[in-house]
């Protein structure tokens, strides 16, 4: 029987049996076993997943003690510790982390700052040996300083495949004082190993998507939603990108921003999902975007100050996007007759959301 949480089992397994482990499908289990079986399993040092679900009240000391025990008998490859205040016992956690062989690490909502992220990066660099990495540091207190410390890890030549990195809801952006007063979020633009990147809900207002795409040839998903982006820089190289999913919702993107973005998206020949909801691109900006995006399956344009003016051209472009099957356009100032015409023209093959 696989477990969803280690803690569920710790409460029912007698204390004398806590160290008796069994590995099946790389997920840790605890059960009552004979010493003979325990010794056989422990000697195999099997690859193991540890997943702890948040349960109140939390005894961090108890959790650390159990992990210290497990790491001596299992090769921990995946470690999921969301919603614990790991900062309180971070030195103990570092001792455990050093003994792991991780390729997946989830420390969502653990009150971690730049110093802790730097330590984690240094430890993981020593462990990388041809494997990919999936890292979730969302809902912590990481700034651009912590982002810089991740760069050595992200660009390590020993990484076998690309990295999934989640830094959603941290403190990355302009409002924090760095060594240079007007320093942009440069570190992530220099990375070259990303396959999925989530930077949503930070305080970013200036970032070069073009550089991120150019340096990360395998990047498929990019989430920059809920930031403060208004426009984009772009270069004139002829490289095409494999990006499939781009989320820029809840930013401050203007018509000019949409025009500049369209020049970047023209190179994204495999883009399927584009979310621009809750920006300020207007009908003109939406026209720029759709004109350049030929492969879209879904486009989100809710609350973008799109009006009746120019909707005829926008409707024509939407008709020509034969791969399109989903469109949201609610929250705009469009007359009902115009919407009815849009539904009549493309509604049979495209699900149009206008609630």
Report on this model:
The structure is a single chain. With 355 residues, the protein is α/β, with parallel strands linked by helices. Among the domains are: 1-75 and 93-99, no CATH class; 229-355, Alpha-Beta Horseshoe (Leucine-rich repeat, LRR (right-handed beta-alpha superhelix)). Helices cover 32% and strands 15% of the residues. It has helices at residues 6-10, 35-44, 60-70, 90-98, 114-127, 144-154, 187-190, 209-215, 255-265, 282-292, 311-320, 336-346; strands at 21-24, 27-30, 47-51, 75-80, 104-106, 133-136, 163-166, 194-198, 221-223, 245-247, 273-275, 298-300, 326-328, 351-353. A twelve-stranded parallel β-sheet has the order 3-4-5-6-7-8-9-10-11-12-13-14, with no helix packed on it. Strand 6 (133-136), helix 6 and strand 7 form a beta-alpha-beta unit. Helix 9 runs parallel beside helix 10 (282-292). It is elongated and about 70 Å long.
Provide tags for this entry.
Leucine-rich repeat, LRR (right-handed beta-alpha superhelix), elongated, 12 helices, two-stranded antiparallel ribbon
Shape: elongated
| Uncertain residue ranges | 1-34, 176-182
Overall mean confidence score, pLDDT? 82
Q: Number of helical runs?
A: 12
CATH topology descriptor of the domain at 229-355: Leucine-rich repeat, LRR (right-handed beta-alpha superhelix)
CATH architecture of the domain at 229-355: Alpha-Beta Horseshoe
| Strand segment count | 14
Topology:
Elements: H1 6-10, E1 21-24, E2 27-30, H2 35-44, E3 47-51, H3 60-70, E4 75-80, H4 90-98, E5 104-106, H5 114-127, E6 133-136, H6 144-154, E7 163-166, H7 187-190, E8 194-198, H8 209-215, E9 221-223, E10 245-247, H9 255-265, E11 273-275, H10 282-292, E12 298-300, H11 311-320, E13 326-328, H12 336-346, E14 351-353
Parallel strand pairs: 3-4, 4-5, 5-6, 6-7, 7-8, 8-9, 9-10, 10-11, 11-12, 12-13, 13-14
Antiparallel strand pairs: 1-2
